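Write out structure tokens for histidine kinase.
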Amino acid sequence: MKALIRRSAAALLRPLVGGRARLRWTHLILGGALLMPYWLLGTVIVGPLLDADAMFSNSLGLQFGAYAAALPLAAASALFPVVRPLSVAAARALCGIAEGSLADGPARSRAARARTAGWFTLHVGLGGIISGMSLALPPFAVALMVLPLSSELRESRLGMPRVFGHGWVVPLAPLAGILSLVALAACAAASAALLARLAPVLLGPTPSDRLAAAERRAADLAVRNRLARELHDSVGHALSAVTLQAGAARRILDSDAPKDMEFVREALTAIEETTRRTVGELDSVLGLLRQDDDPDADGGAASGPTLDALEGLLARCGVPVTLTVAGDRGTAAVPEPVSREAYRIVQEGLSNALRHGGAAPVTLHVALSTEKLEISMENPLPGAAPAPVGQAAPEPVVQPVVQPVVVRPGGGRGLRGVAERATLLGGHAEAGPDGPLWRLAVTLPLPADGGSLRTRR
């Protein structure tokens, strides 16, 4: 029975004096402290209107008049944008408000500043009342609780109401003192609960705040996608080529009578050159990351490979490539952003051919006109019919690999990345089977005046 009574009492007192209630009470006391400068200024304003000699007296008229004058002053000062992040930080820390329900950053719009002013005025207004009660009621309650034990206190009454001078009321004074403390806790809890309920309304994000947050998320997502494309195209292609060359060299070394040691030497040389080139490209991607973190940093993406480096890519890509070019593909004719993206598109197309077709030959055609840059790649589909009997098969540039490269787990972003790169430049990409071949076709527009073209990030 006693345990049940204790649990019931704890359940009743927890909303009034529990951990959350104490934190919210502290929030109210903070509001009372913030009200003090405005209240003092209010006494200066209201004092001469009442009585110049009683500006700092204990007159209730002066105190409540200064309180009424302080609230508009507090509301006016809360119109500054910096007030909202300070109020949000205090509300989150002391009122237990959920993270996503309050706005971040200064109040920029008129509606946001008006809401912040309303919240700040309510905070300091209720905080001033609860702070005053917290200063006055506890000593009064203690005096009531010891009133039956002190005859001197009963005779002086120290400003107590006249009713406590009657003898029959004295035994009830301790109960009145306890009830006054409970009333103080209840008023503080009710005021804090009101603030906690209104915080998401007055300090929550406005439609303009939500729009700005959505734009920030979109920009962050665009940066992450850009870095993912760069890493996928550079490192992914290098790993596919290295895996292809290493597998071919291992098969020759594992054979009973290895005959073509020269190919093994060439494969190891290709692996060395591919990894060295990839380290440089990785530095470029990391430079891009540093540029996103620091706008003043040197942009790593601007130093990435362009179409001028296409021969080096094709020479050690691990797959025989037949290249045909129409027009000048150098950066003098192609803007640098387009040239970099075109290099990455070719690199990703070769990676797809390596992953799905092994050492099957690839045909690459690059056509440049005054209006657009066209890239098309073709390679046989896996399992395509062999050449007719009596017809010689095309001679590969490098030794064929018996087993195609296994697709890496988590792959599949290749064609999507190609399409994203083309779309960012205002072009388009198409990919799919074309008879016995797999065909990738990309068209990138060029500026009419031959000037620079920036990708839309």
